[in-house]
Design goal:
The protein has 377 residues and is an alpha/beta fold. It folds into two domains: 235 residues, Aspartate Aminotransferase, domain 2, CATH 3.40.640.10; 125 residues, Aspartate Aminotransferase, domain 1 (Alpha-Beta Complex), CATH 3.90.1150. Helix content is 39%, strand content 14%. The chain is built from 15 helices and 13 strands. The strands form three sheets. It has an eight-stranded mixed beta sheet with strand order 1-9-8-5-4-2-3-12, with helices on both faces. Strand 4, helix 6 and strand 5 form a beta-alpha-beta unit. The longest helix has 18 residues.
């Protein structure tokens, strides 16, 4: 049997061990050292944001964002149901209520036309996701937020180096959250970052980041001792995590180009299947660029999707479905509310299949495409 093709292989770019060893030799193990600063400087420069803070995960970044939004008991946050659970959890942990709305049928991003109908006097924020690294319609969403004085938080977990109308994803809302999980283009195993686009959020963000204290002012010599000032938690990753990430960020463009090449190969390979009505391929609007984070297809039915996944797995190719809609989950029904019907979300959840896509995948992509085409022909 041919060598199995896994769904994901975390990238290694060459200098990870060197940088981790250097951090150990420096005895810099706790967070916010030299490598943390290298990572945050990279993010501020590439994204053009007011500040960037490394976190232990994108989940932690979203929880920080919920604090900075001032979400409290009974406050509402509008968000897509087709999303990872961390976004809803961040709101619920503050006592807030996620309000789930549908997604667009083309990009599978939040349907901006549904947002205003979901607002109430209790709405505090809009949380959006850039699904598959393809940016959602932030111009329209930003205009809605300004009209209603709401905060926009971008869940850009999948979207590092993607753009919307020439601007980096994660830099267009008030706050942006990134993931460096092992499944992402750039990884530190576990890890994330919160980027701050509104300068007035930056001072409080650093206090929340430092367990609710003004420790940074103490380290900078601005106060004689630090003390508890606000809500916060231990959001900082270790310097070992930051050292690994620094090596990855140095090669982020190289990794992205390689993944885009695989994505483009898939997209061309499946054009004929789409023309015949067998599958629907991803849509990338002309005013966006994406980062090749994932490649998906929509099949004609749940049964066909499930059979395809099983047949690919039997051939040694690991494919996968994606999100279980948040609005239909037990916790989603318990803690959130749904605004209107969500047919596109439910359709995507039943019929979407994700294909293997990773750095230096090379000609394995042809084996995946050939197997899938044969199974659907």
């Amino acid at each position: 049997m041919p060598t199995p093709i896994p769904f994901n292989v975390p990238p290694l770019t060459g200098r990870e061990l060197e940088y981790v060893r250097d951090a150990i030799e420096r005895r810099e193990l706790a967070g916010n050292g030299r490598y943390t600063q290298l990572c945050t400087s990279w993010m501020k420069e590439r994204l053009g944001v007011a500040d960037a803070l490394l976190t232990q995960s994108c989940t932690a970044a979203l929880e920080m964002a919920a604090i900075l939004c001032g979400i409290g008991p009974s406050d509402e946050v509008v968000m897509p149901s087709f999303a990872f659970v961390s976004m809803a959890n961040a709101v619920v942990l503050r006592g807030g209520v996620p309000v789930f709305i549908d997604i667009r049928p083309d990009t599978l991003n939040i349907d901006e036309s549904k947002i205003e109908g979901a607002l109430s006097p209790r709405t505090k924020a809009i949380f959006v996701v850039h699904y598959a690294g393809i940016a959602c319609e932030l111009a329209t969403i930003g205009a809605i937020a300004r009209r209603h004085e709401l905060v926009v938080v971008e869940d850009a977990a999948q979207a590092l180096l993607s753009t919307y109308r020439g601007r980096p994803a994660g830099s267009l809302g008030d706050l942006g959250c990134f993931s460096f999980h092992a499944t992402k283009n750039v990884t530190s195993g576990e890890g994330g970052a919160l980027v701050i686009n509104r300068a007035d959020f930056a001072p409080r963000a650093r206090i929340v980041w430092e367990k609710g204290t003004d420790r940074q002012k103490f380290l900078d010599g601005e106060v004689e001792m630090y003390t508890w000032l606000d809500l916060g938690s231990s959001f900082l990753p270790s310097e070992l995590t930051a050292a690994f990430l620094a090596a990855q960020l140095e090669q982020a463009e190289t990794v992205t180009r390689d993944r885009l090449a695989t994505w483009s190969y898939y997209h061309a390979a499946f054009e004929e299947l789409e023309r015949r009505g067998v599958v629907t391929r991803p849509v990338v609007p002309a005013h966006t660029t994406h980062n090749g984070h994932l490649y998906y297809l929509l099949l004609g039915s749940e049964a066909l999707r499930d059979r395809l996944i099983a047949d690919l797995n039997a051939a040694g190719i690991t494919a996968s479905f994606h999100y279980v809609p948040l609005h239909s989950s037990p916790a989603g029904r318990r803690y959130g509310r749904t605004c209107g019907a969500l047919p596109v979300t439910e359709h995507a959840a039943r019929q979407l299949v994700r294909l293997p896509l990773w750095y230096q995948m090379g000609d394995r992509a042809k084996r995946v495409a050939d197997a899938l085409i044969a199974l659907l022909s």
